[in-house]
Design brief:
With 812 residues, the protein is α+β, with helices and mostly antiparallel strands. It has 19 helices and 40 strands. The protein has a seven-stranded mixed sheet, with helices on both faces.
């Protein structure tokens, strides 16, 4: 938003210094992004007094003038200058450019001889100084202007322009009027409005046009004024220069007036050629499906029913609040005008502007909301100016249509002055708070309980809550005047949820184990579920569709993390990462299949862990030539993770997951619940994701795990007695899960069993068909004394008998 200070000064009786104004506006939330000086540079032009004027001896139309300037110029402060203007006369104060001065057109003056007389400078006209377009002789200055003074100290020869950076909630400041209100609130003074009441004549406007608003929600208020007998042409100098100071190109006197009023009052306007309206009617309605409109930029726009349009009896003639149509454009032949001033729903304008890609000065303001009480005022102001600059006659009255809620009373906000102090850390009294608010035209009355009943002005659409008023108090009082204080309030302990603590501990444990955490997008390709070979009735098939997907391939919210990790694995392998060890902890999205339309319900979002590990090439001499089978490496990772979290995990051979190898997979359980699975990736699934080396997968349902209480750690005294080791080799059925046998041994051996592990597995010569030999190592120890041989025999026999009775085991 460009704000020329000269223009701003016309609206307020107080004119602060430039630096002070820039600082105060910035501190109050209207950041001054830049300060620019506009207008011609006339620093070398001075005020001179024509002492004598005599005819040129060699030219009838030229004069020789002796002009008094500073004492250091010419002969005693007099300079002899040849001048061709007919209006130059002795006794005049004039603008003098001496040799070496650069004029606005780039000309550098030199001492020159004109018809045998040396001219020591130039007596300038307004056009030569860049102050006017016409050449009507020299510029005659005020007789009281001091001789030798710079011209800029006598007449306005330029202006200072602030470039303001407005926040989206301050649409009321997108005008000279809005900024002038802020200046008055900050510095005081009286707000001065330009004249807005036009002189009317002729028949009433209601006899020439009828206004119908079919969509009162989209257009709460519409005002039409008519100006007849205009002459469309170039704007006068003052209007053109005013628009140029804010960076707006002059188009014609009619269009320039609408742009001027927009920047003056913040109310967008549009002028229609009245003769092009069909049926003598203006309608505000929703666009019809596939309706087309050629806008002023020459583009053909296909409209949507979501768009609000201005139409006549037959067609759309403007995209409401955004851009007019070419069919009713004001041209050089236009004589009668219809001026539109309206209030449109910000959300409708915002959506249409985004959909059509049109951003205009009008849409910028309508998207933020305009002052409902300023709609008629802007129409009147534009009609007055058009009659002035285009020579028209304003028809009597205006045609107005308002919905019942268009001019609703202000929203009452109850504010406790004590709350202002608590939030800001100040000690402002209730009276001080009231005075600060009243400087913003907020009507304030004191209630019986001491609180303030506040009614914001109609143009402050951003004020709705007591906290909004507290912010206004801080702005006008001055943020820089609020001392720094520590907040005073109780500090309550934060108790993170069990799920969050579990997530952090899982992440730390896997990172400590050498895995790398990944964070992938929450979208998935529906085809990934086929690559995982999930059954058609698998709950993970019920995915949530994304309404505006990044791509059609990733059009669903993921119901499993595994495809994302497998893709990341493939990318790492393609970049020659020797050994991939990745994990991700994130939520998945499962549609509720119990509902009639699952996609309309909020999905279930359980927290899941997926880890992927692969074997790499043998990288060094010290690595074993035959690495640990990948399944057991992943299983050991699970045991380390859950053991560190305090959970006693159990494993059951086989898994129901179709993407795991049936011979190298296991369910993971804690207590009575299955909380995940671990296993090697099925070769067909690995091929579908283009993964060549062996790959193992670990999955855990962390939400289910967080619902289970971890085993509390037990502490016992370290024994100084020697441990006793016994090895048992047992023949068992080959399909008997070794984990079940090991778990039974641990429960049977007694309280002095320190550890039980499998250290050998053998099948082959000497072993019956269908059998396998498993060797278990049992270690016993107790703190108070050593075991006797009989005690060790009894504990070992108890284990052997259990194996024979429960599993049909035969001691080798």
């Amino acid at each position: 938003m460009r704000v020329p200070l000269g223009w701003l000064a016309e609206w307020n009786s107080v004119a602060p210094a430039t630096a002070a104004l820039a600082e105060r506006l910035t501190l109050a939330g209207l950041a001054v992004d830049s300060i620019e000086r506009v207008g011609p540079d006339l620093s070398g032009v001075r005020v001179g007094l024509v002492r004598e004027r005599s005819p040129h001896p060699g030219a009838d139309r030229l004069s020789v003038c002796r002009v008094e300037l500073d004492a250091d110029v010419g002969d005693g402060g007099l300079a002899e200058i040849v001048c061709g203007a007919p209006n130059v006369a002795a006794g005049q104060k004039v603008a003098v450019a001496l040799p070496g001065t650069r004029l606005p057109d780039g000309t550098v003056l030199k001492r020159s001889k004109i018809r045998s007389v040396v001219s020591n400078g130039m007596i300038c006209s307004a056009r030569e100084l860049g102050l006017a377009g016409e050449h009507e002789g020299i510029l005659v200055l005020d007789p009281n202007a001091p001789i030798g003074a710079p011209l800029s100290s006598v007449i306005p020869v330029g202006d200072t322009v602030f470039e303001l950076e407005l926040t989206p909630n301050r649409g009321d400041c997108a005008s000279i009027l809005g900024v002038a209100r802020e200046v008055r609130a900050l510095f005081g003074g009286e707000l001065r409005f330009p004249p807005c009441a036009p002189k009317e004549g002729g028949r009433p406007a209601a006899e020439d046009v009828r206004v119908e608003v079919e969509d009162a929600t989209g257009c709460p208020q519409y005002v039409a004024r008519i100006v007849r007998g205009v002459r469309v042409g170039a704007s006068p100098d003052w209007l053109r220069r005013r628009l140029e100071s804010i960076g707006v190109r002059s188009i014609s006197n009619v269009v320039d007036v609408t742009n001027l009023v927009l920047h003056e009052l913040g109310q967008p306007l549009h002028a229609f050629d009245l003769s092009t309206l069909r049926g003598g009617i203006v309608k505000v309605r929703s666009a019809r499906d596939a309706e087309r409109l050629v806008t002023l930029d020459g583009e053909t726009r296909e409209l949507s029913p979501e768009d609000l349009v201005i139409a006549d009896a037959e067609r759309a003639i403007a995209l409401a609040g955004i851009m007019g149509g070419s069919s009713t454009e004001v041209s050089a032949t236009t004589t009668d005008l219809l001026i539109e001033s309206a209030q449109f729903a910000p959300s409708r304008i915002r959506r249409s502007a985004r959909r059509t890609g049109i951003r205009s000065e009008a849409s910028y303001r309508f998207e933020r909301g305009v002052d409902p009480k300023g709609v008629r005022r802007a129409a009147d102001r534009a009609a007055l100016l058009m009659a002035e600059v285009a020579g028209g006659t304003v028809s009597a009255g205006a045609v107005e249509v308002r919905s019942p809620g268009a001019l609703e009373p202000p929203r009452e906000i109850i504010l406790d002055p004590a709350r202002v102090g608590r939030l800001l850390g100040t000690k402002l009294s209730g009276q001080e708070v009231r005075e600060l608010l009243e400087r913003l035209e907020i009507a304030v009355t004191v209630r019986g309980d001491g609180r303030l009943s506040s009614l914001p002005p109609s143009y402050r659409l951003d004020l709705a809550l007591p906290e909004d008023l507290v912010e206004e108090v801080a702005r006008i009082h001055g943020y820089e005047r609020i001392s720094t204080t520590l907040p005073d309030g109780p500090v309550r302990p934060v108790h993170p949820s069990r799920g969050r603590l579990l997530r952090e501990r899982v992440t730390d444990a896997l990172a400590a184990a050498g895995l790398i955490e990944t964070m992938t997008l929450a979208f998935m390709n529906p085809g990934d579920l086929d690559r995982l070979d999930l059954s058609l009735d698998d709950p993970r098939r019920r995915t949530v569709r994304v309404l505006n997907p990044v791509s059609e391939e990733d059009s669903r919210l993921r119901s499993t993390l595994l495809p994302s990790l497998l893709r990341a694995t493939r990318q790492n392998l393609a970049r020659r990462v020797e050994r991939v060890r990745l994990f991700e902890v994130s939520r998945v999205f499962l549609a509720d299949g119990a509902r009639e339309n699952p996609e309309e319900a909020l999905p279930d979002e359980p927290l899941r862990l997926v880890a992927v590990v692969t074997h790499g090439e043998r990288a060094s001499l010290w690595e074993p030539r035959e690495p640990v089978p990948l399944f057991f490496e992943a299983k050991g990772l699970v045991e380390r993770l859950l053991g560190g979290l305090g959970y006693a995990a159990w494993f059951r051979a086989g898994s129901g997951e179709p993407y795991l190898h049936p011979g190298a997979a296991s369910d993971i359980g804690v207590g009575e619940s299955v909380v995940g699975c671990v296993g090697e990736l099925h070769p067909e699934v690995a091929a579908a994701f283009e993964i060549e080396p062996a790959c193992a997968v670990l999955e855990l349902d962390l939400r289910a795990l967080s619902d289970l209480a971890p085993v509390r750690p037990r502490y016992q005294e370290v024994s100084n007695q020697p441990p006793v080791r016994r090895d048992i080799a047992v023949l068992l059925d080959r399909d008997r899960p070794a984990g079940d046998v090991l778990e039974a041994i641990r429960k049977t051996a007694g309280p002095h069993l320190v550890s039980a592990d499998i250290f050998d597995r053998y099948e082959g010569g000497g072993i019956p068909e269908g059998k396998v030999s498993l060797a278990f190592r049992l270690i016993f120890q107790r703190p108070e004394r050593a075991f006797t041989d009989d005690e060790i025999v009894r504990m070992t026999d108890r284990v052997v008998q259990m194996l024979a009775h429960r599993f049909g085991g035969e001691l080798r």
